[in-house]
Amino acid sequence: MLNPDLKRLKPYPFEQLATLFAGVEAPEGLKPIPLSIGEPQHAPPQFVLEALSDNMGLIAKYPTTKGTDTLRHAIANWLNQRFALQNVPIDPETHVIPVNGTREAIFAAVQAAADRTQGGLVVMPNPFYQIYEGAAFMAGLTPHYLPITESGQPDYYAVPDSVWKDCQFCFICTPGNPTGTVIDEATLAFLVDKANTYDFWLASDECYSEIYRDTPPPGLLEVCAKSGNTEFKKCMVFHSLSKRSNLPGLRSGFIAGDQDFIAPFLKYRTYHGCSMSMAVQKASELAWADEKHVIENRALYAQKFVQAAEILGDRMDTHDPGAGFYLWAKTDVPCDTFSRELFKSTGVTVLPGQYLGREVNGVNPGAGFVRMALVAEPDTCREALERINAFITR
Ligand SMILES: Cc1ncc(COP(=O)(O)O)c(C=O)c1O
Question: Which atom of ligand 1 is nearest to the CA of 243?
Fold first, then answer.
């Protein structure tokens, strides 16, 4: 016997991509360039790597699930400064838990929050980061997909109150994956109001918040503070070092927000057994305290978006969404065909948008787009963009 919810989990987009590419070879002599996975290829900060190795001796100790005081203080300080929370500061004792990358925490949070006896919805954008959907399935709830519009985010104002009434948990993603679009402050405030009116948890996945061009994207906690929700009621945010600091393998992030969720979630996690290794905690503490490497990182992404516009010009929609590191570009042939033919003739891999979305009423809002992760070093990215340009021109 197995948990029947396991059968509800869908193949991950990269498994679908492997099936699409089965038997297809990149051209001989051309080095493959993957722009499919959002794994930053910029160098991780040296001081973080040194802190990791300097603290390897701590591997002899069991870490606590709650994490060290110093790490939670470093996280709280970062949040307070980045989101101007000085007047309603984050309490490192009650508002924050370090997590082993946001993926595991996003997945676990719904299971900790869900009241299975009631049933109900987990509201999420479509296309999306697929963990939201898997989390809903494993919590025994039903995903409710909100199609993104031309804006790159769902039209939250168009969601009927009947949906909010049945909602137990709502994921928002800002800046979004796959579009990079940011949810503005007014819409965040509107969603905080809905969460409190209809009593659901509002979870903002902000793991791309530090990759932006000019304007720092607003965060959910910041909007709570500004709108008088000083205890962040019904709200939580997820942040990660994976994209901000080029440390996807460190597995380090945090959840912060309403202590009415954080406290029971800590209890859940104690059983789940997902405390963060002490060496990782020490390294993470330093990473959250430093902005210099983040500023340098941002500049590299900005440079690559300029490159994309220069190289692809108006042959492809290279509109810079202002944040994140994805180009979400329309294709004039089916997006899976585009992706397979592109790989076959150039060795560049991009992800068909349809794999990131779900068909609702006959429409998959991800279809007809490809997601290109501009994660490679600028020179490699330039090479990939030039090959894409040659492919489209042909
Ligand atoms: C939208 C989104 N959320 C969360 C994550 C998870 O990141 P991590 O587990 O590395 O913190 C990713 C990773 O690609 C993502 O794209």
Answer: 10
